[in-house]
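Good morning C.,

I know you're traveling, so I'll keep this short. The sequence:
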Amino acid sequence: MSVEKRKINVDKRKKFVNHLAVFKPRTKKDDNNELSERIIITARKTGELNLSSRGLATVPKRVWTLNDLTKEEIEELHMNLDFDDDRDRWWEQELLKTLNLCSNSITTIDPEIQNLSDLIDLDFHDNLIEELPDALKTLSKLRKLNLSHNNLNKINTNLFTLENLRHLNLSHNNIQELDPSIGDLVMLETLNLSYNNIAKLPVGLGYLVRLCKLDLSHNLLIELPPDIMSMRVLKKFDASSNHLEVTPPLGEMRKLEILNLQDNHLSVFPDVIGCTALREIYLSNNQITELKMECLEGIGQLKSLVMSNNKIETIPDDIITLLNLERLDLSFNKLTFVSNSLCVMPNLKHLIIDGNKIKNVRRDIIQCGTPRILRHLRQGFDSESIELNRSSSPCPAMIPGPDKYMMKHTKLLSLAAQNLDQIPDIVLEDASEAKVTCVDLSRNRLTQLPDKLNLIKSIEDLKLFCNQLTSLPEWIGELCCRLRYLDLSKNQLTNLPESIGKLELLREINISHNKFTVVPECIYKISHLEILIIHDNRVKEIDASSFAKLKRLAKLDLSNNDIGHIPPELGNQTNIRALLLSGNCFKQPRQAILVKGTDDILSYLRNQIPL
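The tokens, ready to paste straight into the viewer:
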């Protein structure tokens, strides 16, 4: 057996003995010995250190100075540099960016963690940590933090100063309340607060507008804060296993795909009107008495609706308009009748209705499963007696015009792709009365905006792309004060009205594929702007000092313009997470830098700033 293999086997044997010695008190020396020279060298080369599942009671002290050479290493380095050989160049190292200390018995985090200022990913899950040190606030580059499965009772507010944090997991702790300053984590994309003892959420939670995934399950929540509606990009929301009795309207969450509110105390179907991207809804184990189809109008992509263990007495006939529904679970409710029309639902694969006292479908048929149930319903189905409502059909010829009732419940006015050069006044008046929040006039032949559009004070999302607009009226910035999303792409615009700068709530504007030669001055006055898309225009220069005014700007797309010079000062815009500059005529930075991504581009630009 080779010396190296023998050494590896000895190491394995030692580790095995350490974990068996459960009756021997663990000492700091034992913990420090877990960090072998081989592990240190590997961590220095990769920038990653994994000390998970090692029975640690404390973090080995050497971890906090991992990238610092010891006196012996410095002496060895001098000796190695005197020889030109092929030995391992152990002194070449990467700064520590990933630290995994999960599944140990660590009770405290040493303040010396502040020495690891380049950390991006920190994992302390499955330990015995009871409080967090102030030193965590110094980890300004941290993007991912996992503190789940610990003994935390409260969260140090210094944690909420980590402005680059993208993923935060605080699940399975004993947290009872959160400070409103959690809203300062404006870059956060995923937040897991499940399995705690939180009874009330702070209002500041609504400032987390970049959240894509929010898990509040298994807490003590009685209500949700109204500003949770501000999470416009949220895709998955889980508030199951709480004490919720009612929920606020969720219609602003237009990108929501999965909603889980099961195991609560809800008595009415949640208001999801406007959540057109919903694919899965889970409402089992509540006290809901009625399946309200008006709440599901416009949600044509719904595939799974699970409402077992409620108090529903009837299945509405209109449920057959959910043409994409694949799973319908109404088991253990108070159903006595199932309509034969369910058999015409083209994609229904799982119909679960056991646990009810249904009279028109025998129990033995129900026990045979969905294919047998649908076959039974089909036998009693009279196709001529059912007039299928095709309101969600993609065929516009079936729809004579926008339905006022539909607009009221979906908060949407859509006249997209109608080849219109003007909009009837009555339509806009009805939309105003319905208080729609989204107006889609895209893919038409409009050369100017109709004056009656200013009647709709509730607009938050305005889609005007693919028209023939050459200018916008001044009133757009004065009367559309609630506007958050504005798409003007693929028109013939050369400028924007000054009033656009008054849209304080505007977060995203798209003016790509127009005829702009400069970035309109009014844009720099939009204080909450997060996404600015100007690609495929004729912009010739960038004013870095003006862009510096946009403190919340996270995405800037200036690709395919006529920009001849990129000012180095643009590199100071560290809040920008996506910077697109390709397809211009500048020589620096080169394409090799551009393809590396935003962080490298900004770093390159900062290095070009004269001292």
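Safe travels,
E.
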